[in-house]
User: What shape does this take?
Amino acid sequence: MTNQEVAQLLRAVAAAHQLKPGGANTRFRVIAYQRAADAAEHATSELKDVWEQGKLDTIPSFGSSIAGYLDELFKTGSVRHFKTIFAGLPPALFELLQVPGIGVKTAFKLTKKLGIKDASRAIEKLERAAREGKIRTIPGFGEDSEADIIRSIEEIKGRTGRMLLPYANQIADDVVSWLRKHPVVVRADPLGSLRRQVATVGDVDIAVASKKPQEVIEHFTKYPKKTRVLEAGGQTSSLVLPGGAQVDLMVQPPQSYGSLLQHFTGSKHHNIALREFALKHGMSLSEYGIRKIKNQKLKIKNFSSEEEFYKELGLAWIPPELREDAGEIEAALEGKLPKLIDIDNIRGDLHLHSSFPIKTSHDEGMDSFQKMVERAGELGYEYLGFSEHNPSQSGNTKKQILELLKKKKEAIEKINYSRGKSENKRIKKVFNGLEIDIKPDGGLAIPEEGFEFLDYAIVSVHSSFRQNKKEQTKRVITGLSHPKAKILGHPTTRRLNRREGIEFDWEQIFDFCKKHDKWLEINSWFDRLDLPDTLVREAVNHGVKMVINTDSHQLEHMEIMRYGVSVARRGWATETDIVNTWDWTKFSKAFSM
DNA sequence: GCCGTTTTCGGCCCGACTGTTTTCAGTCG
Assistant: This one.
């Protein structure tokens, strides 16, 4: 039973409760189950593990009832109480909820009137009914809602999961520059999960400051690349782009733009927590500003900047990356927000793949040492490290491998020797590293004699992802135990939208890294962003050091450092935690092996 | 069903947009 499956079950219970007659109690019970589902989905450890430790009720939103039901779930595989809740409801109902625009009430009505019962192919059956014109005949539906259902189903068919952050960035840049072409647009900014720099982005959200919202909306709906306009009201509008990406727009006058930024940046959970916090202090929040509850007639107070908005609540301004309802409001209240790192703090990159012909086991880089060193200088770095993949063990003899490693060492030494004469005098040192596969048994994929040619090794898992948690933990700790192994590369090996990360016993890994001063990598690669932000936060709490690397295979990739920095920020990391923010003096001391 | 710096009872975030209505329910973020 995965967290995702638990979340799905809780969401289904919430949906089922929505169909039950009853007053306010039912309404809030629904919300309670939805919150519990969110909590399950966002939990940083496996609920089953938490359950084994008897700590389910320590998770916020899990009270005694839900914790009790989950106890039964993990023990027996099902929950009797939930079965009675689901009694009489067609399984198809929960399938139809996947269609945007269809909620519980609508789904129930549709299953009943169309006679769709089974979960399998429920959406297919709904689509057929819609295309045959059967939906418009149901009371409460019309031709428009029937057409909407068809379009929505087409869209979920073409959907390929959430967008990667850099891709969403590109879309937003394009839409924002289109918006800025219109003279009534004072400001336009991408917000939502993009501004919070979440690894994957669902919808692209954009806010505009303007005194003429109608004209902005009209201009927005004429965006040339749209495939259709989803909605267009007085101050909000949504478009769909080719590929299914959705862009949401919200417009406000400049004097309340701060409130709008705040509202539209989210996250939803942060906003809910913030409004609850405000309510306790006699204030009510919305995207328009702050209202004192005792004085209904008092006009809403506007804010042109977010800083003022948070200040009015008695809080320090909270960086968008922290707005996930993960303790940031309490920290802001107590003045204990972390001093987050910034891209300007980065002083080196230790995971670069050059084109040096080392007959690698995986993909080679495209650019030379020299070019990459120069780029590092332009980026303001003081040090960098080349870590090509280890030479292939099947394609080379042991003797050949040692020869290749020796040659590479000599080439790097030459660069270091001639470096002083180049324009990049600020580069203090180029390190000679290697990214070495951790084999399934924990062994490292070069001969022991090869290590003497290296300054350091990044050790990474590139195969056998399916070992169980215990084996993987042992494997990685064994690999990291080599004295030259300093960094665990892309630790979970996840590829966003492609495969889940490996499961480890993180307590063990963190303890090992802390004790032996090993560093965990935050890999900036587009679909990795690994360590994931939630684990960065845990590593920070354990006092484990991390290094942000790009894993560049060509010059242009060296720019993606910013996404790794975003991951670190989302994990509450400060300069103390991230070793490549350290200046040369401090870093070189820490990096000597 | 959850939760606690006014509370272990009595609250629970706030508003926009749409379609099908004729004042609103449902959905979404």
About this structure: The mean pLDDT of chain A is 93. The longest strand of chain A covers residues 429-437. The longest helix of chain A spans residues 398-419.
